Amino acid sequence: MTTTQPISILLVDDNPLVTESVAAWLEDDGFEVHTAACGTEAIELLATIHIDITLIDLKLPDMSGEELIIKMFGIYPESRFLIHTGTQSYMLSLDLQKLGMQDDDVVYKPVLKLEQLTGLIRRKVMGENLKE
Questions:
Q1: Distance between CA atoms of 59 and 65, rounded to whole angstroms?
Q2: Is the pTM of this model over 0.90?
Q3: Domain that holds residue 115
Q4: What are phi and psi of 3, to 5 degrees?
Q5: What does DSSP say about strands 8-12 and 32-36: parallel, antiparallel, or unpaired?
Q6: SS3 sequence of 61-116
Q7: Is residue 59 part of a domain?
Q8: Residues with pLDDT less than 70, the chain
Q9: Does residue 131 belong to any structural domain of this protein?
Q10: Is the CB of residue 61 less than 8 Å from the CB of residue 14?
Q11: 107: closest CA among 66, 58, 63, 74?
Q12: N or C: the chain end with fewer CB closer than 10 Å?
């Protein structure tokens, strides 16, 4: 008998309104959501629980989202990441591209079509061939 575990997401954002609303929506869609308000908290949490994918804001109080991705990838190279940003003109840095991140790994705030976010999460975790 096979039991299916929900996809585990770490949502890293220092804005409580964003965190609460996005986390609630993802949980309603069947995901297991953990939250962190800064990079240090995210790294500590990642050391204690299994996370399938991390959704990271670019502007955090203790480090940038890019710095956090690079640190987390260095510790857990099997990790998957999505950037969640309100910066509409953001372009991936070369450092993140070298880690394998692509333009479709960036989700812009506000997420008006949350179904697109959940579809992207499922594709990144379960494989690129998964259709929405």
A1: 6
A2: no
A3: 8-125
A4: -105, 135
A5: parallel
A6: CCCEHHHHHHHHHHHCCCCCEEEEECCCCCCCCHHHHHCCCCHHHEEECCCCCHHH
A7: yes
A8: 1-3, 111-113, 128-132
A9: no
A10: yes
A11: 58
A12: N
Residue whose pair of structure tokens reads 């857990």 in the numeric block: 76
CATH assignment at residue 15: 3.40.50.2300
Is 98 contained in some domain? Answer: yes
DSSP 7: P
Looking up tokens 């993802």 gives 26
Residue with tokens 């690079």: 70
- Overall domain count for the chain: 1
Other residues' Cβ atoms within 10 Å of the Cβ of residue 128: 6
Cα(120)–Cα(128) distance, rounded to whole angstroms? Answer: 9
**Residue-level pLDDT at 94:** 96
Residue 132 located in a structural domain = no
The CA distances from residue 34 to 31, 37, 91, 131, in Å, are 10, 11, 26, 25
Cβ contact 20:13 at 8 Å: no
